[in-house]
Amino acid sequence: MSEPAPSGEKTKPEKPAEEEGEKPPPTMLEQMGGVSGLIYSSVPVVVFVLANAFFGLTAAIWSAIGVAVVILVVRIVRKEPIQPAISGLIGVGIAVFIAHRTGSAKGFFLFGIYASLVYCGLFVASVLIRWPLAGVIWNMINGTGHAWRKDKPSRMGYDIATLAMAAVFGLRFVVQNWLYNEDYTGWLAFAKIAMGYPLYALGLIVVVWAVRRSDKRMKTLEETAPPVKTDAEIEADLRAKYAATPAPEA
Prior knowledge:
By secondary structure, this protein is mainly α. Helices cover about 70% and strands about 0% of the residues. It is built from ten helices and no strands. The chain has helices at about 30, 35-55, 55-75, 85-100, 110-130, 135-140, 150-180, 185-195, 195-225, 230-245. Helix 3 runs antiparallel to helix 4 (about 85-100), helix 5 (about 110-130) runs antiparallel to helix 7 and helix 7 (about 150-180) runs antiparallel to helix 8. The longest helix is centred in the middle third of the chain and has 30 residues, at about 150-180. The radius of gyration is 28 Å and the shape is elongated. The N and C termini lie far apart (about 65 Å).
C-alpha cells in the first residue's frame, strides 16, 4: 500500500497541457490575422478606388499607403499578429508603385493578377513532377517528412488538393485579367476582394480533406507495419539460424 501524503503537504493537481504552456497550433484563420485580418486586407483596396474616383491617382496612392500603415500600427498597439499587416503593407507598396509607373489606377491590381498566374503554374507543375505542393507545404510545416509520397492514395489526394488551389489562382487570373483589359477598375476592386480569402477558403477545404485522408492512411500504415529490428536483433536472429542448421556430413 502507498503511504498517505503528510498532512502538512498538499498534492498539486495535474495541470492541463494548455496551462503548462503548450498551446494548440494556430488555425488557418488565425494565421491570416483572424476575422479582423480579413477585413483589414480589404480596406486599402476600397480606399484606393474611392480616393481615385474622387481625388485622382496621386491621392489614391498616398491614401492606400497611409491606410496600410495605420492598420499595421493598430495591430501593434492592440498586440495582434502583425505578419498579415506587414505582408499587406508590402503588397500595397508594390501595387501603388506599379500604378504610379503605369500612370493608371488599374495598375494597382496588375501585380496580384500576374502573381495568381505564377502561383497557378507552380501548383500545376508540382503535380506533373509528382511533388504536389499541397502535400509538400503541409508536411514541411508539420515536420512529418516525405513518407506520404510513397503512398499512392495519399499522393493522389494531395494532387487533387493542389489542382484545386491551382484552379483558385487560375480563376483569379482569368477573371481579373479580363476586367483589367476592359478597364473596369471598380469591378477589379470587387473581384480582388471577393476572389481573395473567400475563394481561397474554398480551396483550403479540399486541402483539409486531403490532409485528413493522408494522415489517417499514414497512421494506419504505421500501425500495421512490421516492427523494425535493430542491428543487434538481426545479428541474434542470424546466429540462432546458423546455430540451428546442422553441419554437412563429411
